Amino acid sequence: MSKCIICGQEIDKECEEHIIPYALGNKHFIIRSVCKTCNSLMGEKIDAEITDSLSGKIVRSQYGIKGHSKKEPNPFKEGETSDGDRIRLSPDFKPKLVPKVTRDENVYHISTSSKEEALDIIKKIYLRNVKKTLTEEQKEILCTQMKRTQTYPEIQFHFEFNIEKFYLELVKVAFETLYYQEGEKILLEESILNLQKILHDYIYKEQYDKELIEGIIGLPSENDSKDIDERLSDLKKQLSEQVVHLIYVLSINNELIVLSNVEGMLKGAVKIPVKDSNNYKTKMYFICYPSGNIL
To answer: Where is the HNH endonuclease domain (predicted)?
Structure first.
């Protein structure tokens, strides 16, 4: 029976751990050496922060990636006007005012996108306060009293970017990619085990050695970044489908460098010192969508 590479416990039932989240179009770039509990916790506490972010939803919407829910996300589902009114957008980006009810003593002010919605709210308020239902005559009077206005408000969208979750996702991708590529021998390198410790401490204790993670995370150099973009561009021209993600493992000068380019939204490098970089391979992985092929 194998042991989980995150918590070290024996794995009772094998499950698929997606190195890059499934919700970002990765179908086959997986390992099977993570227990169900660690798999769920990393999905909930690390992956979801990326896939459910605004940039993650934009990527998923762009490629029509539905994920486990079988639903395509709407990255601009809800915004607000400068007056604080909430606006919801349908999947085809048609705006709709979220009903707003305010009360000034015994007077209710109701704002909705239609008379039908307003009338439905009034019926509920009337039933709650008077314990009776509105008559047809009362409904007609109310409809004639409603005022219709047409506005073209500027809709504002707010989102937060948590750099901590960005770093943790890079660490997760790097650690699992190295295991995918090299197998058990990576667990003999103390520096690589530091990645395991960061992940374990975060998903179980919601804390980790921040100095350690800041010491290994970096951005690709200008040349590396240019090289990655050119390779992706060339492949996209050659293939009938999209090349969505690239993971680049470099083994050089007693250091392992794992460059991650997850459709431009997650772009960074994890640098890990090792005893002898000649023991490890240099390799690129291109993950395509919708087939999920790994090139």
So the answer is: 4-54
245 beta partners: 262, 287
Stated pTM of the model: 0.80
CA separation for the pair 210, 163 (Å, rounded): 12
40-62 burial string, b = 16+ CB within 10 Å, else e? ebbbebbbebbbebbbbbebbee
Query: Burial code of 211-235, b = ≥16 C-beta within 10 A, e = fewer?
Result: eebeebbeebeeebeeebeebbeeb
Q: Strand, coil or helix: what is 156?
A: strand
CB neighbours of residue 194 within 10 Å: 19
pLDDT digits (tens, 9 = 90+) for 110-140: 888 888 888 899 899 888 888 888 888 988 8
287 exposure class (CB count in 10 Å sphere: 0-12, 13-18, 19+): buried
Q: What is the C-alpha to C-alpha distance for residues 69 and 23, in angstroms, rounded to an integer?
A: 9
Q: How far apart are CA 194 and CA 212, in angstroms?
A: 8
Rounded-to-integer distance, Cα 91 and Cα 187, Å = 45
- In the chain the beta strands, taken as DSSP E runs, fall at 17-18, 30-31, 78-80, 86-89, 95-97, 100-104, 107-111, 217-218, 242-252, 255-262, 266-273, 283-289
Phi/psi at 169 (nearest 5 deg)?
Answer: -65, -40
State the DSSP H helix or E strand holding residue 12, giving kind and residue range, or none if neither: none
